[in-house]
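Tutorial, part two.
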Amino acid sequence: MRFSFALKLSLAFSLLAVISTGATVVYFYLEARQLVLLQMGNRLKDIGRTGSYLFDEQQRADIKYLADMVRENADFTGTPEQRAAVYGEDDLPATEDDGSYESLPPELSSKLMAGPQFKRVVQSLREIREGSREIVRPLHDVPALHIIQQEEDQPTLEYIYMLMPVPGHPVENYLIYLADSDYLPVDADGDGAFDGDDDYEGNPIGNITLPVTAEMHMGFAGEAIAEKDFTEDQWGDVVISGFVPILDTDGQIMAVLGMDYNVKSEANRIADLRTIAIGTVVVVFVLAVLISILMAQMLNRPIKKLQAGAERVAERDFSTQIDVRSRDELGVLANSFNLMVTEIREYAQNLEALNSAYERFVPQEFLFHMGQQNIVDVKLGDQVQREMTVLFSDIRSFTTISESMTPKENFDFLNAYLQRISPLIRKHQGFIDKFIGDAIMALFPGTVEDAVEGAIHMQMELQDFNRVMTDIPPVRIGVGLHTGNLMLGTIGEERRMESTVISDAVNLASRLEGLTKNFGTGILISEHAVNQLNGGRDRILIRHLGRVRVKGKKGLIKVYEIYNSDLEEVRELKSQTREKFDEAVHLFQEGKFGDAGRVFEEIVNANEGDNPARVYLDRCQR
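Running the prediction step on this input gives:
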């Protein structure tokens, strides 16, 4: 799929803007979030560390008393169902879900929670929680659960409690509630049952709970710790939990103070900040797209002009010039493009003139049959074999004609003759391989009919030429035609080479042209070429001249005369006497010269312009 430059630029600019802005916004968002969490955690640890000093010697003794009572009286095995839900097999948690059960008998649990030791500890927990309000107020008793209070100034400590390890188990697996500021059940909906979402069943002493977070058991290592991320409890409040160890007078950890700090407001602000960050990225993206589209359009207009100009140049329209009125790099590029096109136009004109000049020396058809597109691609030794019809033509008695002319007149005469004859070869799908003085060697890669029609029209054009050239004797030419395989190629050396044709077919066509002088006829064609004639034989006037011996051939070859270009009277008489002529030639080939002579004499008497018949008659008489 092809993408436009404007789209690529828009995507690149937008992507760059989004990545840079997004990375910056995400960085500041994460830093702000981390800073808020760090500040909340530090505040929570400060509250926990300060609150741990509120427990005096009496309350620490109370804590030790409660812990000893739990260790002595609690059943840490539980019922089978409780054991499966809390401990699982091999003392491992059966589930990561929150699960708890009461390890103390209800009578003992109620007795301990009604005792002064438990109440003093809980009162201290509530005092720590109440100290987290925004408005400072005197100490007083508070309801069991602040979650049902309608006061606007709620404590930021959502829950505060005290934990101790389960005897015989690692602290990272199980913990037990020693005291909770909200240990009493609350029927929020007033239906007498603790089954609603707002109802709270209470968290009595001795409750074993799962799961244990890493921060919970790290509190038992003697370090004040706070969670590093927000969590959401079952009532939908967002909290951060912190844990601070409570030590006895010997410095031993008796319990851990647990605090759930309500940070819903801060979490909402962080969420708002995330929304703002996302919105910022979206706004930047939209603005980047709009700005990049505008910039792309501004840049794309001259680029499109350059593209259109380049396409016109590719279509060989070298008159192309583009108008970009800009003083920036695009304007410089447009001016350079116009200069380049001007140079290309001049170069193309020179190259076209050079190619035209080359075609005068090396025919384009030669390159085509050699399988080359340009003369530059032709190398010494390139060759290819083709079957073609070879045409040889020569001016009769040219030496006699040229002796009466100056050198300039000779060139003018030959050029005038060739300018009349050569186009007829191209007209009939042939091409001239070379000029040999006054002789022409041409090749016809198509049908034999093309070569025959070309030879006939050459003879007929010569008649018009003689009527124009009145200051010299009439010019006559002989034409020889033969079809066969030949080799087209290049010969010479690296610094000087030329195209040529090498074949016995060329030699035979040349010999046939020479025989036209002997027979006194205009066109001779070989038997093989005659056999290749297909369509048009009804238009070609042809007769057999017999078998002759030519130089370079061991046996005799059959030759035929084509007399379409003869004078009309001679042409008609040849057609009328063609059967007699064939009979006479047959008698002559059998050595019956007397009988053959009488027939030839009859033909000559009827047609004095039948030169081949006159030649045979002379032979018979000799």
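Residues 54-262 form a domain with the Beta-Lactamase fold (CATH 3.30.450.20). In part three we will examine how such features are distributed along the chain.
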